[in-house]
Specification:
Keywords: Coiled coil. The chain has helices at 2-20, 26-60, 66-103, 110-116, 149-155, and strands at residues 119-122, 136-139, 144-147, 160-175, 191-204, 207-223, 229-234, 237-242, 247-266, 271-272, 279-280, 287-309, 312-319, 327-337, 340-347, 359-370. The chain is of the alpha+beta class. A hairpin with a 4-residue loop joins strand 2 (136-139) and strand 3 (144-147).
């Protein structure tokens, strides 16, 4: 998970840097060059003043004669003047090139810049198409880039659209013959998270109610046993046993690559273009309900134990199959408004394939479909 977060930060930072580093106008660049010339002159004059004052101090202390001091002052004055001339010449060359670029049409002025638009960065969802005729929108939530208002309106009204999905919440198991209240796992300490990409296809060409939603997701199911226990593999059985040392944390994680499939009811009404000649079908703007399921394969299982021994903090990671079922399949549903939903999923297959008592994973949380 730390690697995923790191890669996400790098990608986001890269896109933000590109978006912010927009082209400067002719007026802005000319003002910057003028500022540089003024700063060069001021810095050189201040440096000359300090050097002259240092020479005067040497005269007062009798280290050099007045004649030698005059010669030194003349010499450093010529050096500083030469420095100003050299540095200013570089800036003047930049200004000449800037003017030439302006003549050649490579540089825009402030009026042209406003007509060209700019870049807007959206971190979450945004259902508003009014981004400007020539503006670019970078939407990190849906991982899309729209080039102008028309491009956004048309792409969001296609029969098949894509979404970035992220979900998280509570995770536990339902055990045969037991209530969830008697669970062997901490209710608030056990959690799940899921992320992936889905496609949403309108089933009927001219009706927006029914959609097929499908894609790929990574599911992370975490369980934290109660009463200082952890999992031990005993042949084809996997048992919860009490640890002989005090555990600061005991966590069991299963990771699955799954293919979810839902029938989605989207009650977003159709929209008309400004001139009333075109009909747009949108999604993820009002009430939504999805029912379906998922199937997939287990990628890995891992147990993490944290404890202290002889004043030394130890974090132990155990990897293996732990007799966990290689495949997973189950039912899932969500209901919400816009891009946010209440989400529930239940594994029809038992978590451990050979244990005498079946335990089926169940999750409840929030789901975000960034359209």
């Amino acid at each position: 998970m730390q690697k995923i977060i790191l890669y996400t930060i790098v990608i986001v930072f890269s896109l933000v840097t590109k978006a912010v580093a927009q082209e400067k106008t002719f007026e802005q660049q000319a003002k910057e060059i003028a500022s540089n010339i003024e700063m060069i002159t001021t810095e050189e004059k201040n440096a000359l003043k300090k050097e002259v004052e240092a020479i005067d101090v040497q005269v007062k202390e009798g280290k050099i004669t007045a004649e030698n001091a005059q010669e030194l002052k003349l010499k450093i004055a010529e050096e500083r003047a030469k420095n100003i001339e050299t540095k200013v010449a570089i800036e003047e060359a930049k200004l000449a090139q800037l003017v030439q670029d302006k003549v050649d049409g490579k540089i825009t002025d402030s009026g042209e810049e406003s007509r060209r638009g700019g870049t807007t960065i959206i971190l979450g969802g945004n259902n508003n198409d009014s981004i400007g005729k020539n503006k670019t929108e970078i939407n990190f939530g849906s991982m899309k880039i729209y080039n102008g208002e028309k491009d956004k309106a048309e792409r969001r009204s296609k029969r098949t659209t894509s979404q970035f999905v992220f979900a998280f919440g509570l995770n536990n198991v339902i055990t045969d013959g037991e209530n969830l209240e008697d669970s062997d796992y901490r209710v608030w300490g056990s959690h799940f998270y899921e992320w992936g990409v889905t496609y949403n296809s309108r089933i009927f060409k001219n009706n927006n109610l029914l959609h097929a939603k499908y894609g790929l997701s990574l599911m992370y199911n975490n369980l934290r046993p109660t009463d200082n226990r952890y999992f031990v593999k005993n042949g084809d059985q996997t048992d919860l046993v009490t640890s002989t040392v005090k555990l600061d944390d005991s966590r069991f994680r299963n990771v699955y690559l799954t293919a979810p499939l839902h029938l989605e009811f989207d009650f977003t009404p159709k929209k008309l273009s400004k001139d009333g000649t075109k009909t747009y079908f949108r999604t993820h703007e009002t009430v939504r309900l999805g029912i379906g399921g998922y199937g997939g394969v287990r990628i890995k299982s891992k147990q993490i134990l944290e404890y202290e021994l002889d004043d030394i903090k130890i974090k132990e990671k155990q990897k293996g199959d732990f007799n966990v079922s290689e495949f997973t399949y189950g039912l899932s549903a969500y209901v919400g408004y816009g891009q946010t939903s209440l989400y529930v999923k239940y594994d029809l297959n038992p978590m451990f394939k050979n244990n005498n008592i079946d335990q089926n994973n169940v999750s409840l949380g929030l789901r975000f479909d960034f359209n």
